[in-house]
Write a structure and sequence with these properties.
By secondary structure, this protein is mostly helical. The protein contains 14 helices and two strands.
Length: about 240
């Protein structure tokens, strides 16, 4: 009985983690109107999903790629599920690009600088490359659902994907993130967040202080008035850009 309770708690913990990560990604999509592929939320989300997919995985499901169980699993699924087959091809191409870049970087730093920047090849991205690729190709939810529907072939009885309730819930949680559009562009919004209300008030006070440096009873010169108006226009333009 204690073992059954412990297994159930483990499944719930894995599911709660995925729910939290999905919520963060969806909130980022709403507030920023986009999600960058290198977002920290993507990294943590992929790690959480990978933990669920690997939970209770049968040893023989890993096949000969024991060092990359996710790759081995997806390759096996790809034999009978076309979306997974296409994903495997693209993921292997990415791995080949990474290996080529790594080999050339060892030869010389000059050759490394001449190579075009490859997206999503930072260390966190490499670790969860196959899950990330499935997410960006919008097939992660479909592959997980396929694993749920065929769970007895790949998983032990305690696995989260074997559970008749938790498995379908996990697959449904992935539908939202797979429906989003992800960007590789380094936009201004990627580096800056909207200024807070306090910051806007402080900027206004600084601007007002500059404009009131002259005596209130003395009419400012035309050039000073024009300069003040220009500062205010620049301030408004900056606010619009930051928004």
């Amino acid at each position: 009985m204690a073992t059954i309770m412990a297994e159930a708690e483990t499944r719930q913990k894995l599911l709660r983690t995925v729910k939290k990560e999905v919520k963060q990604i969806m909130e980022e999509a709403v507030t920023r109107k986009f999600v960058h592929e290198d977002s920290s939320h993507i990294v943590s989300f992929c790690a959480a999903v990978e933990a669920c997919v690997l939970h209770g995985l049968k040893r023989r499901a890993a096949g000969f790629l024991r060092s990359n169980k996710i790759a081995a699993l997806f390759m096996k699924v790809g034999k009978s599920f076309p979306p997974a087959e296409e994903l495997c091809r693209k993921a292997q191409e990415l791995e080949q690009l990474m290996e080529t870049k790594r080999s050339q970087s060892l030869q010389s730093q000059d050759s490394l600088r001449k190579l075009p920047r490859l997206p999503n090849l930072n260390p966190p991205g490499v670790k969860n490359l196959w899950i990330r690729a499935a997410l960006f190709e919008k097939v992660l939810d479909k592959i997980v659902l396929y694993l749920v529907e065929n769970s007895s072939k790949y998983y032990e009885k305690e696995a989260i994907l074997m559970d008749p309730v938790d498995g379908p819930i996990l697959a449904s949680l992935l539908v939202g993130p797979c429906a989003l559009e992800y960007t590789k562009m380094k936009t201004a919004d990627h580096f800056w967040t909207d200024p807070s209300a306090d910051e806007l008030v402080q900027r206004h006070r600084i601007h007002s202080g500059i404009c009131r440096q002259d005596s209130p009873t003395k009419r400012p010169a035309l050039c000073v008035r024009m300069k003040s108006q220009g500062c205010f226009l620049i301030f408004l333009s900056t606010c619009k850009l930051l928004h």
